[in-house]
Amino acid sequence: MITKRIIPCLDVKEGRVVKGVQFVGLRDAGDPVELSSFYDGQGADELVFLDISASHEGRKTMVDVVREVAGTLAIPFTVGGGINTLDDMRTILRAGADKVSLNTAAVKRPELISEGADYFGSQCMVTAIDAKFDEELHSWRIYTHGGRTPTEWEVTDWAKEVVERGSGEILLTSMDQDGAKDGFDLSLTETVNNAVSVPVIASGGAGAKEHFSEVFSETNADAALAASIFHYKETSVEEVKKHLREEGVRVR
């Protein structure tokens, strides 16, 4: 049986880790290198680093910071934000990342996923999907540019598209739940999980260790990601894993 993964996320802006609610109202959460080393020591299974303003600001990911963070880690490391070409992917992977995460660039040019999968392998390709519920659609719509720009894509259609193009994993963030701390969006997570054959990482809404056991018991998510509750020491990776073991969830 596959063990579930717990993944802290570093949303980075101007060299600092930040966190907001529903992608706005950002506040400082610390130094990315220090936090990365801390989470590695805490027993995190992986780490995600997202340069959250790179696509919006039309610039590249902060490679020097990525290199510094990678130097502190013994766990898999995913980097996203401002990755627009095969050369960008190569630069990030050479800087020490194990996987690259595409969001805005993939929606703009879905072929980029295929190019990355063909060259580096699907295991290196993560597609980050930011989804918000649309009352007219009665489903979730995809947003780009750090949650600023709505698209015409419906969430399951886009999820199937990225997997067909070679994405090996989906990082699924509920914009409605992001920063709300009242639990993961179980309906969104299970809807996407049922639509694809690759691992799905649930993101957005974690506010307590119980939310992790809930998402694993109520959906088939392969991993759960959180930011603020770890950054601000409201709980820890160790506490979450201890709780999951007590609830019968297999973790590393």
UniProtKB/TrEMBL annotation:
Q: Name one GO cellular component term.
A: cytoplasm
Major localization listed first in the record, in broad terms: cytoplasm
List, alphabetically, the Gene3D superfamilies matched.
Aldolase class I
Q: Which intervals of the chain form a coiled coil?
A: none
Its GO biological process terms? Answer: L-histidine biosynthetic process
**What keywords appear on the UniProt entry?**
Amino-acid biosynthesis, Cytoplasm, Histidine biosynthesis, Lyase
Q: Which superkingdom heads the taxonomic lineage of this protein's source?
A: Bacteria
Q: Which residues form the signal peptide?
A: none
Catalytically driven reaction(s): 5-[(5-phospho-1-deoxy-D-ribulos-1-ylimino)methylamino]-1-(5-phospho-beta-D-ribosyl)imidazole-4-carboxamide + L-glutamine = D-erythro-1-(imidazol-4-yl)glycerol 3-phosphate + 5-amino-1-(5-phospho-beta-D-ribosyl)imidazole-4-carboxamide + L-glutamate + H(+)
Q: Where in the cell is it found?
A: Cytoplasm
> SUPFAM superfamilies, from UniProt?
Ribulose-phoshate binding barrel
The active site of this protein is located at D11, D130
Oligomeric and partner information: Heterodimer of HisH and HisF.
Family assignment from sequence similarity:
Belongs to the HisA/HisF family.
NCBIfam families under this entry?
Answer: hisF
Entry function:
IGPS catalyzes the conversion of PRFAR and glutamine to IGP, AICAR and glutamate. The HisF subunit catalyzes the cyclization activity that produces IGP and AICAR from PRFAR using the ammonia provided by the HisH subunit.
Q: PANTHER family given for it?
A: IMIDAZOLE GLYCEROL PHOSPHATE SYNTHASE HISHF, IMIDAZOLE GLYCEROL PHOSPHATE SYNTHASE SUBUNIT HISF/H IGP SYNTHASE SUBUNIT HISF/H
Q: What is this protein identified as? A: Imidazole glycerol phosphate synthase subunit HisF
